[in-house]
Every structure is written in structure tokens, then in C-alpha cells.
């Protein structure tokens, strides 16, 4: 099996001031191309530690991606560490000096002398293009490994990996099988529940199922040999097995709801108490949903301590119909106040009004609780738009009561 | 210098499915206690790779924290890897079996047999308590290093590090100087601008300044020898040098605004177009601000293409006064629609109304843009509550125009 390592550099990453999102991104991308990482290391900006780590990885791995430390300042030491590890000198790439000068000319500025450092590469290294910034990357062979040196700026890093590195790897290791990844999302099922439901499936050779929990959804990934014909029908079978709780195939819940709203030309108003604007704010990133969202309200939640269950439901329903009428929207979604850990959520439509009183089985941080309740609201709407039972079954949520009032009451 | 390493285990972390927040947290905490990490490694759930990594770190480091892989399932291999690396067997801790039985009794359930695996520790290892879960940790000396094995569940991990590990380290390495960390936040200044402003300061021995950019704020950290008397006056000097753009000392902007609203007993209403509910939703996590927030509106932004600058300002002002009157709030904050990359934001108070038309100098993702504009809104309120100039100077934001209408107009 290929041994593949990544080395991240930089004090900020090491001391936890920034999360290493480049590493997570590379891991995912490489995995999909069949190049699963076997180890990742983070070291600070110390020349010797960095050179030692590069050498260690060059002896134990086949492919090593080194990220960061290619900038113009004195604590950017990666090229020098690479030269030490491979026992060569640094030499200037005249080509890259020219490229940097062109970049600065376009900005109407003179290139600072400090940038010359960024054109100093270990002797014999192959330059990797960076069309965005001034930090070129480079590739070199050392001991057992191919080493790829990349800039820390995420946009520059990602472009270099995709355009320069992955094609080189695919050429160098043609037997490594790239895989397709088909995704869909579920809401309201547990990972063990999903795995049990899918257990009757027998996967063809080269197929694999992965889960990723991203509160409150679980993403299900089907890895398949690239271009394999069975992949889509297999995914369809998985989707059917999981039924109602699949909230988006190849798309997220707000994307799906947005599409359905646009297709059916329906406008939406939202009134939020316990969710405090979460749902309204969440939908802003999804153009279709945003286009159909007419108004959002956040109302301070003043409940009376003695409020009964049926009052909570009735109040959410009343707000939903009022919100729909006041704004002349086709649909209204409402979250009531939190009362004794319970929340009423309501959906008002031309066809009738639904409300349910729910309680999460676990206790969540307030932020996560809003997320959870907002997702139930959006899921009610998804179910209605998609002609499914509006009141769903969720493993992690307890339903205390529910009500449906048809429009022609 | 002490060499301190962390090893994270688990396929999910390695393949980028989850971000390694435990590592970032440990790095920060250790740094504050004077134990700066020198390297971090992530390996998958492979017995041999894990054992090799443990051995490698035990030869090159003084302190190693290993995280994850202490669960009851077959892919939890850390104890076994530790035993292989140190060439000893595993033995059952009867004490821990008892502890687990008690935990299960409290839940009214029988302990599954599979949990016995969690009481199997390398011979000679010292048990580390886990009052929350069933995965106990353990400590052992190997080669040059003290090894600490910890569970992957964040709450259990954090408790074990704080209660079991840090005190052991402080005892074992009494010369390592713990440091205090005093924090404050700025908005509207660049890192290089801040560093230039603070450059006249001469720091006493043992002091250090750190920056952390967390869009749209920059957090400034002053590290000081523990309990040193000068620390607070030095921080005060830094705060004075940076002036108006300091938005919170030891607290964040929404915390500060919330405190000031409660202290001055003022209620708030928010109407958002371009920010789409961001500000309303943001304030939900801050009890003081939430308590004084009467209503939030998100209005769909239908601008006419020909809208002039003064109309944008006038419309934001009109919405602000209307929102304040309609809800009988003391204060209203408003963001208008985005028009030609510009946004009008307005603040209405008993003392008068302010509005400014702003444009970010860089282009941001829509999410980040809402964050930025919402922060300007909140900063206007902070400045007003704190008796400062309401219209601030921000390096990253261009102001196109501004207006002030006193209340007695």
C-alpha cells in the first residue's frame, strides 16, 4: 500500500490559533482520488525540526505533501529546510522572478526585494505554478518519496493541488483507482440505525459506504469505481431503503427546499421565537430559498410559566396563520418559545396547518438546539412540498403532541 | 527546550471527515501553561503505524499526549499499540471494571462484555480517571518520554487533560513557567496596523504579544508571567494606544454591548435586509443582549436598480425610526439592501439617528459579508452606548457617505 504523508508547518497551526482546514481538505480530496493519507504531521517554524520531519517522511512514505512556509518573511523556512534535508543548495528560478515582476506590474507596483526569496528553490527541484500568488510550489524526489511543497494560503494551495499535483500523481501511479463519491443527506436517523437499515445491501467489489455526521444531518457517501454504471442505481436503492428521512440527494436540505419553492412558485414567511433568527439567517446562503423568502421575524419569547401544552401548539398555529396572512405569503413557518424544554413548531400552507410539540432527547448547547429546531421546521416544509407526511419520525427527538387543521375547516 | 508531541488517532480525523478540534484546544491550553507543542501527528486506526509513531515520539520527545482509540470497539487499538511500543502485555484493571459497572448501574443497565476491553491497560501503566465516560486514560514512561493516553470524546478529553495531566506536568517540570493570557478584541484595524501602533511599547522580560485573526475581529493576547503585577497596566496602555477600535477587553463585542444595554436599561429592535437575520441570530448566544432584544426583522431586499446614494441612506434611516417607533424600543439597528456593493446601515436612538453607506474593500463570500456588515451595525451601537463617535474608522471598509440627524430636529 502506498504510504502518503502530509506535513503542515507554522506556529499558528501548531499552537491551535487556526484550525488546519487545508489538511482536512487535502485528506478528503486525496481519498477520493484513491490516495488515502496514512499520516499527517504539524511542525512549527523551526528550521531543524522541519528538515528532520521532511527527511523522516522521505524515508517512510511514497508521497509527501508539505504545506506552508513559502512566504517572503524570515519565518518562512520551508525551501531552506527542503535543501538541508536533501543536502543541496538553493538556486534562483529566473522564470519565477519574471512571473512575480509581471504580477506586481499588473498591480502598478514595484516588486519588493524581499520577494526574491520566493524564487529560491532547492537545486534540481521542479517548479509548480501558482497563478494566484507569489509563492510558487516545487516538487522533488528524495529517498523513497516524491515531495510536493505548497503554499499555505488556502486558495493557492487548493489550486496547486488540483492543477499541478493530482495529475502528476495519477500519471506516476496509474494503478491507483480514482473513485466517484455520491452523497446524500439524512435527518432524524442515527448512524447505527442507518447502518442497520442498509445492512441487507451487498456492495459490489470496489464499493464502500462512509458516514459523516454534521449536526443535525448525517451525510452518506457511496464510494464507487470511477464511472461505474451501477453506482447511481445502488444509491437509489439506499435512498429508498432510508425513505422519508432522506432530505437531499446530491444537495442539502435548504437547497432542496429552495428548488421546490421556486418550482412550485411559493413564497415563504418565517417567524422565530426559540430559533431566534437561525432559520432566516441560514437560508440566506441558498439563492433559491432566499428568493422565495418574503420576511423573517424574530420575536422575543415571553411565555407565561403556566402555559399548557395545547396553548403552546395553539399559539404557534395562531402566529403561523397570522404571519401568512399579514405578509400574503403562501407558506409560513414558526417556532414558538422554549417551555419546559419543549418547543412548538408550525407550518401554515394553503392546504392546512400543522403543528407539533417537540423535545430533543439529548441536551444541546443553545446554538445546536436552535439548529436542531430550525431543521425540523425546514423538514416539515420539505415534506409538505414533496407530498410526504408532514410530521416525520426522528430518532433523536421526542414528539409530545401534534395537530393538523385542514384549510377548509 | 522541552520537546512536546501530540498524536491524534482515527480514520475520521485522518481523512478529513472531522476537524481535529481536540488538537487545537490542547495546543492553546499547553501553550498557556508554558508547554508549547513542538509537533503534532495524526495516524489512522492501524495497529502497526500507531505503535511505530508512539515509539518514534517516545525517542524524540519529553512529553507525548496520545488522543483517541480507547473505545470498546475493534478499531480502538491504542492500548494495544502502547503495549507493543513498550514491549509489555496488557492487564486488566479491576478498579476500572468496578467503576464501569457502577456507571452502568446508575443508568439501570448491565455493562456489555465488550466494555471489559476498556479496562485492559499496558502493564505498569498508571490509570487516569475519567468521571464522565467509560474510557479511562493512562500514563506511562517510555524511553525519553512521559506518555499520556486520552479518550477522543472532547468533553472527556478536556477534563482529563485539566484534572489529571496538567497538574502532573507542573509537578514533573516545576521550572516551566505558566503564563497568564490577557485578551482583548479590536475591529477595523489590520494586523500590521496594530503591530505598528504597539511598536513603541517595550515589553518587560517574559512578556509576549500574540495576534489571532477571527473574522472580522483581531484578538490581541498579552502573555505575562503568572500573577505579574504589571500585566494589567500594560494591557491598559495597549488598549489606550489602539483607542476607539478596541471593542471588548476580556469580552467580545456582543458581550460588551449586552452588558451596556442591561446597565443602561435600553431595549433594542433590529431590522435586517442585507444581513438577512445574521445580527439577530448572532445575539441569541449572549444572554444580556438577548434579554434586551425586543424584535428582529428580516426583510426581503427589493431595491430599484436606479436607487441613488442618498435614497439608500434615507431609506435605512426611515426604516430605523419606524422600527423603533413601532416596537416602542429605545434603539433600532438597520441594514439596508446591498446596492452596487454598497450597504446603508443605520442606528436610531433617543438622542438622534445615524446612518452610513459602506463598502468592504475586499470582496467577501456572502456569509462573511453579512458578518462584516452586522459587526459594523453592532459597533455603531457599542460606540453610542460607550459615548464615542458613532461613525468609526475601519481600515478594511470604505465609507461613501454618512449622515446624523439629532433628535430635536
UniProtKB/TrEMBL annotation, chains A, B:
Highest taxon of the lineage: Bacteria
Domain MoaB/Mog, residue spans: 5-172
SUPFAM superfamilies: CinA-like (SSF142433), Molybdenum cofactor biosynthesis proteins (SSF53218)
UniProt-listed InterPro entries: CinA, CinA-like_C, Competence-induced_CinA, MoaB/Mog-like_dom_sf, MoaB/Mog_dom
CDD domains for this protein: cinA
Gene3D superfamilies (UniProt xref): CinA-like, MoaB/Mog-like domain
Family: Belongs to the CinA family.
Name this protein carries in UniProt: CinA-like protein
Amino acid at each position: 500500500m502506498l504510504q502518503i504523508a502530509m506535513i503542515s508547518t507554522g506556529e499558528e497551526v501548531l499552537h491551535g490559533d487556526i484550525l488546519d482546514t487545508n489538511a482536512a481538505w487535502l485528506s478528503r480530496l486525496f481519498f477520493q482520488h484513491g490516495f488515502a493519507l496514512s499520516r499527517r504531521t504539524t511542525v512549527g517554524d523551526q528550521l531543524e525540526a522541519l528538515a528532520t520531519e521532511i527527511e523522516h517522511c522521505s524515508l517512510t512514505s511514497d508521497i509527501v505533501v508539505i504545506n506552508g512556509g513559502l512566504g517572503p518573511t524570515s519565518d518562512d523556512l520551508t525551501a531552506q529546510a527542503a535543501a538541508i534535508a536533501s543536502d543541496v543548495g538553493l538556486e534562483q528560478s529566473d522564470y519565477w522572478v519574471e512571473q512575480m515582476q509581471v504580477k506586481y506590474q499588473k498591480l502598478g507596483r514595484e516588486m519588493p526585494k524581499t520577494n526574491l526569496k520566493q524564487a529560491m528553490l532547492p537545486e534540481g527541484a521542479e517548479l509548480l505554478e501558482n497563478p494566484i500568488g507569489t509563492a510558487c510550489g516545487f516538487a522533488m524526489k528524495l529517498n523513497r518519496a516524491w515531495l510536493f511543497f505548497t503554499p499555505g494560503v488556502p486558495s493557492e494551495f487548493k489550486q496547486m493541488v488540483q492543477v499541478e499535483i493530482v495529475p502528476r500523481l495519477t500519471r506516476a501511479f496509474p494503478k491507483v483507482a480514482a473513485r466517484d463519491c455520491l452523497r446524500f443527506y439524512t435527518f432524524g436517523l442515527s448512524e447505527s440505525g442507518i447502518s442497520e437499515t442498509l445492512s441487507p445491501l451487498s456492495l459490489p467489489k470496489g464499493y464502500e459506504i462512509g458516514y459523516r455526521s454534521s449536526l443535525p444531518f448525517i451525510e452518506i457517501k457511496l464510494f464507487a469505481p470511477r464511472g461505474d454504471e451501477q453506482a447511481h442505481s445502488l444509491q437509489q436503492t439506499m435512498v429508498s431503503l432510508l425513505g422519508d428521512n432522506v432530505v437531499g440527494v446530491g444537495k442539502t436540505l435548504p437547497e432542496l427546499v429552495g428548488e421546490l419553492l421556486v418550482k412550485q412558485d411559493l413564497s415563504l414567511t418565517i417567524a422565530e421565537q426559540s430559533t431566534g433568527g437561525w432559520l432566516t439567517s441560514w437560508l440566506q446562503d441558498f439563492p433559491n430559498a432566499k428568493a422565495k423568502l418574503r420576511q423573517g421575524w424574530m420575536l422575543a419569547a415571553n411565555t407565561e410559566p403556566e402555559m399548557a401544552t395545547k396553548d403552546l401548539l395553539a399559539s404557534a398555529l395562531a402566529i403561523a396563520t397570522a404571519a401568512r396572512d399579514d405578509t400574503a405569503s403562501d407558506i409560513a413557518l414558526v417556532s414558538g418559545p422554549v417551555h419546559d424544554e419543549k418547543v412548538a413548531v408550525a407550518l401554515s400552507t394553503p392546504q392546512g396547518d400543522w403543528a407539533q410539540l417537540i423535545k430533543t432527547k439529548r441536551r444541546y448547547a443553545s446554538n445546536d438546539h436552535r439548529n436542531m429546531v430550525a431543521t425540523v421546521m425546514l423538514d416539515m416544509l420539505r415534506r409538505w412540498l414533496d407530498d410526504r407526511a408532514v410530521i416525520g419520525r426522528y430518532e433523536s427527538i421526542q414528539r409530545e403532541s401534534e395537530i393538523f387543521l385542514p384549510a377548509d375547516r
